[in-house]
Write a structure and sequence with these properties.
mainly alpha
Amino acid sequence: RHCVLATRLEMPAQQGILSVLAGLEKFEDVVTQPPGMRMPVYATVMMLFTMGNVGLPGTSGFVGEFLTMAGAFQESTWAVFGAAFGVILSAGYALWLYRRVVFGDLIKQSLQSISDMNWREKAIIAPLVFFTILFGIYPAPILDLYAASVGQMLDSVEAAQQAAAATLQLAQK
């Protein structure tokens, strides 16, 4: 019941955090001294959110991926195989991108003086790291938050499907 909403809640958060990390101009124009060696905290945080984005167990991304695949498996195993293939390709691309950004060469000379995360950036990122790991290990608070509304929505969909089937049967008579 929770698979769609868990994915909808988690994926934009993971992608948004990665966008914020990229947008802090720490790794802009990176494609020669690797930034990851000079900025270990930043590199670690970016790795956590990259892994969360691809659904690594222990991160909130895994919960969404698992619930989506478990729900879809009940309807179509072929769709789940296709989705799993997409997840594998996505993970490969994310790891390639991470390696290139964090351990690649720094081309733009003006970025040579950039330092690791300051206290303000750490204060902003710390709760996001905490909740990414918390909801990856214990997703119940989020799932319980919208369990009633998901149940009500599913009941409405089921009632509409039954009404449509009854209408179709009457039309065929």
